[in-house]
Request: fold
Amino acid sequence: MPGWRIGVIGGSGLYEIDALENPRWIMIDTPWGAPSDQLLTGRIGAFEFVFLPRHGRGHQLPPSDVNARANIDALKRAGCTDVVAISAVGSLREELAPGQFVVVDQFVDRTFARDKSFFGPGMVAHVSMADPTCPRLSGLCADAASAAGATVVRGGTYLAMEGPQFSSRAESLLYREWGCDVIGMTAMPEAKLAREAELPYALVGMVTDYDCWRGGEDAVEVAAVIAQLMANAEVGRQLVVRLAGLLPAERGASPIDTALDRAIITAPDARDPAMLAKLDAVCARVTAAQR
Reply:
């Protein structure tokens, strides 16, 4: 089996990982447009990491303009075997206080202005999203966050909103009634695209605020979020370092590595060559086997 090569998508406040040995910024072109930034490659101990700042260095991209297809495609082309997303989130639960970390295992997708699939006319696929994160990778990330000094909650439902505005109080209260635990603007369609690209995905949410559902709570303001982001970001960087120390020497196979074996529905003789060309990184493994 190929070894681990971990893609790390850094969210708000996490724009670089200074622990990488022999760091090098590289640009990867994709058929889906440009990724958010160049990719920072390097090693931590025995393992290779590829870091991508989701919003670009300096936070240039609002959530709806993050090209998630290009980002996931670029990580796939860079040889990543797994993807860890580290994201700022708001809390929808009293017990999830700012400064805590939540390793998410479910999503509710309320985004509406984003391209949500690599597939389309001429090449149709339906991947399962029943369990949208990788249990193995999520467990390793939870252990790494704990080792980095974070208070960690294992499991939680992430409400993905479109943004860029924060929630109304009515929306925030509704999402609590739905059973959601944290809220953010970027995990969807990122997690869906990672599954289509056969990349095991884990999301670590860094809680910055209580959203606006609490009675008497101040509305969410960027200044307060940024202050908590800065405190969380250092722990996020240490999480990556700790993760490198927890990875098994050998990467065993994951069922997600072959997710497309059970997803592509378009017959081989009906597939659009132009779509296949765009999907050369995402599904080359399965299309080559079906020729």
About this structure: Residues 122 and 274 are 8 Å apart (CA to CA). The helical segments are 68-77, 135-147, 169-177, 187-196, 222-246, 273-278, 284-290. The chain has a mean pLDDT of 93. The first helix runs from residue 68 to 77.
